[in-house]
């Protein structure tokens, strides 16, 4: 149920104080401060720990209580604002709910006797984590700063990279109870207006008690909730966000979250790393091709092993067939069950490493993998070649820069193993065809998910499978349908 807050501010300040104290009774962190500006009674309310007390003491209370004695003819609030109050950010409000919501966000609410308006003083100052390098998106070259949980720090990191008057940061509030600050960021003369309109409609439809992280917003605005593939992109790197904004995309920043959402997104963009653009184009292109081949190997290798050993032994060399048969001698499970057991074990090991404390996580991962693999082979549960295949699958799957798309391919890998267990190579082909059809039909805010591979200009291929020299990036991506299409003259 929505909280009902009295709309109007009463001229009688004592009535306003009684109302606010009743609203926030049994709340020890709310500070109520009554004082006098000359002969005029005034009132401040703020949250201890979220408001800057030094600013309040030195530039608000000292000015209003002491310096006001030297001002003659102090008759109205305009004199107080213009001649006494020495703060830069002061907002006049005429509704109680706006003042209360601002106070709950860290600002200070000031009321003056005889006035039907209140004033919000910008005093937000809370404990914040410093700027540090994102642990999940490390690069060889490039900046080392990353987003934190404080939204104003994050907008400053973006503004530092885009010193353009046309950069827009539109603030919104989500969550009926949490009232979380959300900022929609875009460059006005570049952004695709249709994408912006769709995004605003989806955000405005969000009606939930609390938004605790950007993941909440991400799930509400995504195109297909049944698809394993993410139709939005998240990042902790300000340079990635700035690059996306220059391409006509939109960024959504959520307070209390270091992850920024970028929309729309495409599958090829999820395989791109910031390092691709900071290093020479030849090396970046080779690495990108290797990355693509690695994803294909991690997706299909276990399923190919199951299909070949179960149905199509004749297509492999005789010596290799004998070696596989001898290595599987004594294994009680069929090939598909062997692959599933090891793939599940790998997933469990990776999940446990994520949850363990960092000092012991890496050690447990290495020791656990070796012990489990050796014990499984010694016990005859799996064959040695299966250990090799699972190891190759794990190594190649780590080349995907985006964790969410890597998780999606892990799920598809399970399904392909099952398909190969029933139909062999035909099952793999059918599974890949179904996957391709799904990806072709998938869209992100109206943009094809496989763009620029589909419905796009061949000019966009300069940044898909390979990355050409920067001098070839004359135009912004055609599939984005931006207003300003020229990037480089």
TrEMBL record:
The keyword Cell membrane does not apply. Keywords: Membrane, Transmembrane, Transmembrane helix. It comes from the Bacteria. The keyword Membrane applies. Pfam families: GerA. The chain crosses the membrane at residues 289-313, 333-354, 366-394, 414-440. Belongs to the GerABKA family. This is Spore germination protein. The lineage of its organism: Bacteria, Bacillati, Bacillota, Clostridia, Eubacteriales.
């Amino acid at each position: 149920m929505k909280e009902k807050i009295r709309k109007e501010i009463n001229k009688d300040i004592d009535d306003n104080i009684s109302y606010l104290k009743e609203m926030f009774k049994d709340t020890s962190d709310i500070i109520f401060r009554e004082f006098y500006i000359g002969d005029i009674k005034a009132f401040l309310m703020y949250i201890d720990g979220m408001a800057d007390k030094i600013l309040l003491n030195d530039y608000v209370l000292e000015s209003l209580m002491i310096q006001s004695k030297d001002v003659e003819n102090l008759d109205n609030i305009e004199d107080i604002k213009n001649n006494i109050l020495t703060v830069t950010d002061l907002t006049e409000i005429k509704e109680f709910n706006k003042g209360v919501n601002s106070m709950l966000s860290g600002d200070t609410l000031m009321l003056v006797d005889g006035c039907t308006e209140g004033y919000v003083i910008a005093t937000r100052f809370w404990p914040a984590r410093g700027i540090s390098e994102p642990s999940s998106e490390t690069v060889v070259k490039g900046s080392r700063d990353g987003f934190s949980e404080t939204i104003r720090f994050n907008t400053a990191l973006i503004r530092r990279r885009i010193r353009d008057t046309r950069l827009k940061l539109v603030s919104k509030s989500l969550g009926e109870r949490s009232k979380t600050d959300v900022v929609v960021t875009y460059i006005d003369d570049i952004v695709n207006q249709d994408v912006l309109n769709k995004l605003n409609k989806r955000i405005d439809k969000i009606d939930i008690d609390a938004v605790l992280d950007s993941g909440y917003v991400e799930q509400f605005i995504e195109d297909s909730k049944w698809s394993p593939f993410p139709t939005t992109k998240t990042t902790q790197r300000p340079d990635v966000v700035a690059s996306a904004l220059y391409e006509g995309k939109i960024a959504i920043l959520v307070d209390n979250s270091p992850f920024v959402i970028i929309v729309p997104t495409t599958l090829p963009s999820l395989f791109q790393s910031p390092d691709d653009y900071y290093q020479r184009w030849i090396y970046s292109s080779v690495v990108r091709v290797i990355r693509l081949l690695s994803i294909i190997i991690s997706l299909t290798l276990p399923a190919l092993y199951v299909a070949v050993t179960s149905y199509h032994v004749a297509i492999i060399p005789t010596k290799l067939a004998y070696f596989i048969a001898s290595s599987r001698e004594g294994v009680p499970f069929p090939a598909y069950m062997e692959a599933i057991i090891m793939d599940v074990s790998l997933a469990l090991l990776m999940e446990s490493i994520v949850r363990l404390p960092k000092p012991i996580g890496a050690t447990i991962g290495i020791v656990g993998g070796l012990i489990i693999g050796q014990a499984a082979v010694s016990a005859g549960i799996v064959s040695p070649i299966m250990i090799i295949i699972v190891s190759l699958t794990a190594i190649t799957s780590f080349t995907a820069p985006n964790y969410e798309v890597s998780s999606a391919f892990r799920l598809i890998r399970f399904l392909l193993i099952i398909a190969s267990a029933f139909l062999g190579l035909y099952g793999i082909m059918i599974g890949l065809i179904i996957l391709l059809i799904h990806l072709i039909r998938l869209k992100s805010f109206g943009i094809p998910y496989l763009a620029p591979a589909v419905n796009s200009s061949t000019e966009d291929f300069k940044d898909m499978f390979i990355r050409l020299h920067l001098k070839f990036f004359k135009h912004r991506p055609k599939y984005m349908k931006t207003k300003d299409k020229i990037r480089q003259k």
